[in-house]
């Protein structure tokens, strides 16, 4: 079998995403697609923000984007992604922000069973696979034992380590924390296990993120998983750095910037 790769993008929070960071991640995707190795793209949660139906207190008057506009932006992103990577599988893992729709519909009984994230974003029409938000949410990356899910199994400063401890001998790649962390361990039977937090692709300067007091201990990034045979893979988590007037990342020995 030939090499297969998975591109993992998490926490865009469209339309409050960072265009420059997202462009860098997709440029890496373009190169993988061109060499025929990009088997799948995993949208690992909180691709949409759904701020317009957020029920956590009063809305910020500085945020004038309507829910209709939010949905339109996300639909356009997904259509463009499907058109750009026509031969790759795309997996949409629902995050807690997208799940705001289900919470909203629970308070409007007339919408029960009619409206959900997959139908609202036309995922079926665009050929995008949907993994719903759930306690036992998981997607097996490239058919391996590596589990992709939106949320870690534990939060806190050392979320990757705590998740590895609680993962029951599984390897996990996740989003939600907006931080980049990786840790490796060895299970009782001698196999390598790992946990990776992939960072995020949002824009911390957007007013929607002003609930953070002090500073944002968040890092922009994404991951590439390379499958070399039926089960063996390597994970590269790629930070996106602000370097002067450029945002930059490095993959496969090449510097991407904009």
Task: Looking at this protein, list some descriptive labels.
258 residues; alpha/beta; Purple Acid Phosphatase, chain A, domain 2; 6-stranded mixed beta sheet; 5-stranded mixed beta sheet; 5 helices; 14 strands; 21% helix; globular
Can you characterise this structure?
This protein has 258 residues and is an alpha/beta fold. The protein has a single domain (4-257), classed as 4-Layer Sandwich (Purple Acid Phosphatase, chain A, domain 2), CATH 3.60.21. It is 21% helix and 28% strand. The protein has helices spanning 19-34, 67-84, 100-106, 117-120, 159-166, and strands at 4-9, 38-44, 89-93, 129-131, 139-140, 146-149, 171-174, 180-186, 192-198, 221-227, 233-239, 241-243, 246-251, 254-257. Strands 4-3-2-1-10-11 form a six-stranded mixed β-sheet, with helices on one face. A five-stranded mixed β-sheet has the order 5-6-7-9-8, with helices on one face. A three-stranded antiparallel β-sheet has the order 12-13-14, with helices on one face.
């Amino acid at each position: 079998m030939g090499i297969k790769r998975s591109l993992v993008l998490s926490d865009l929070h469209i339309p409050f995403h960072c265009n420059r960071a997202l462009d860098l991640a997709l440029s890496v995707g373009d190169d993988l697609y061109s060499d025929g190795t990009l088997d799948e793209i995993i949208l690992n949660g909180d691709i949409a923000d759904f701020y317009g139906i957020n029920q956590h207190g009063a809305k910020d008057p500085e945020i004038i984007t309507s829910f209709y506009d939010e949905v339109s932006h996300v639909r356009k992103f997904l259509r463009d992604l499907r058109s750009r990577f026509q031969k790759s599988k795309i997996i949409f893992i629902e995050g807690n922000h997208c799940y705001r729709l289900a919470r909203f519909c629970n308070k409007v009984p007339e919408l029960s069973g009619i409206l959900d994230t997959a139908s609202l974003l036309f995922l079926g029409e665009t050929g995008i696979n949907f993994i719903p938000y759930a306690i036992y949410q998981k997607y097996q990356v490239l058919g391996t034992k590596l589990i992709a899910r939106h949320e870690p199994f534990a939060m806190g400063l050392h979320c990757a380590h705590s998740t590895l401890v609680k993962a029951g001998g599984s390897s996990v790649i996740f989003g939600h924390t907006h931080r980049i962390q990786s840790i490796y361990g060895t299970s009782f039977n001698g196999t390598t296990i790992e946990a990776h937090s992939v960072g995020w692709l949002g824009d911390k300067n957007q007013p929607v993120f002003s609930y953070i007091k002090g500073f944002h201990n968040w890092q922009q990034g994404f991951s590439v998983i390379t499958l070399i045979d039926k089960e063996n893979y390597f994970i590269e988590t790629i930070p996106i750095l602000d370097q002067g007037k450029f945002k930059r990342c490095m993959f496969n020995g090449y510097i991407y910037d904009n």
